[in-house]
Amino acid sequence: MFDSIIHPDTLEKHINDPDWVIIDCRFELSDPSWGKKMYLEDHIPNAFFADLDLDLSSPKRPGTGRHPLPDITHLVNKFSCWGITEKTQVIVYDHMSGAFSARLWCLLRYLGHNNVAVLDGGCTAWKNENRPISKTIPSFKNTTFTPNIHPELFVTARELEQKLNNSNLLLIDSRADKRYKGIEEPIDRIAGHIPHAVNHFHQDNINEEGYFKSDQELRVIFNKLSKQDINSKEIIVYCGSGVTSCLNLVALQKIGFKNGKLFLGSWSEWIEDPSRPIIKP
User: Fold this and answer.
1) Which neighbouring-strand residues pair with 261?
2) Residue 256, Ramachandran bin (φ over 0: left; ψ between -120 and 50: alpha; else beta)
3) CA 97, 101, 106, 112: dihedral to nearest 10 degrees?
4) How far apart are CA 230 and CA 2, in angstroms?
5) Which residues is 235 bridged to in the sheet?
6) Got the DSSP string for the chain?
7) Facing residues of 48 across strands?
8) What is the torsional sign of CA 47, 137, 103, 248?
9) pLDDT tens string 191-244
10) Is 239 tagged catalytic?
11) Sheet holding 116-119: strands in order across?
């Protein structure tokens, strides 16, 4: 079972394995239709496509963040069409080393499917290494995905408010440094961060070649953030809307920390309530 990341060599060996399901999660916040266009041009053979807005989120509502939890029935139906069962090894990928596909990684785990891994290097490394690509769209499958929901993997805004002063909490803001500091905010209407949060940009888990850093490097990073062994902490991650912060959870899983939690609404939900405390520049 692969439950954090998977090397391209391993995926290529299983490219036609009927018990493996591959899902393309490419997306651009500035151009929501871009990912589907790229998928239709070419993709890893046998890969289905998941749209962040249409498949992995529900529409924004008053009081929510920009990417709320999708309707569970819709998600279960989608997993069934993709052929995911309890025996399936799922591989997810995108063009940013997992920044978007990690959202699907989190959702599968939330619904009780742990056999899911992010493709190390994503489709960028896959293509650079001249591995096989295809234009063929796979047919939907007739299977039944049975969810086993794990609500403990997600944290609500109210729950986070109650935990903020807990000395055992390690709250990680996964956005870029300037957004964390409130120097710039290109997406959300208010700049700043949640009190007591420390900053670890999700792309800092990735090396210059586009692959995940080594376990040793990642342990140093996260232990430095916590100022002690991370295993003694309750770790909650957030970003702008509960998408790219999932990459920090993948990195934690990779080094053996399996209890990381996602504040799903993230910054865009936190600022919906003016009574919630924020740190401004």
Assistant:
1) 236
2) left
3) -120
4) 22
5) 170
6) ---SEE-HHHHHHTTT-TTEEEEE----TT-TTHHHHHHHH-BSTTEEE--TTTTS-----TTS-SSPPPPHHHHHHHHHHTT--TTPEEEEE-SSTTTTHHHHHHHHHHTT---EEEETTHHHHHHHTT---B-PPPPP----------GGGEE-HHHHHHHTT-TTEEEEE-S-HHHHHTS--SSSSS--B-TT-EE--GGGGB-TTSSBPPHHHHHHHHHHHHTS-GGGSEEEEE-SSSSTTHHHHHHHHHTT----EEETTHHHHHTTSTTS--B--
7) 23
8) positive
9) 999 999 999 999 999 999 999 999 999 999 999 998 877 888 999 999 999 999
10) yes
11) 5-6, 116-119, 89-93, 20-24, 47-49
The catalytically annotated residue of 25, 106, 123, 239 is 239
Residue written as token pair 């998928």: 39
Full set of structural domains in the chain with CATH: 5-128 (3.40.250.10), 151-270 (3.40.250.10)
Residue 228 has what pLDDT?
Answer: 78
Supply 187's token pair.
């997406």
Which whole-number Å values give the CA distances from 10 to 6, 19, 90, 128, 155, in the listed order?
7, 14, 13, 16, 33
Predicted model pTM: 0.97
Query: Residue 48 and residue 54: Cα distance in Å, rounded?
Result: 14
Q: Is 135 in contact with 103 (CB distance < 8 Å)?
A: no
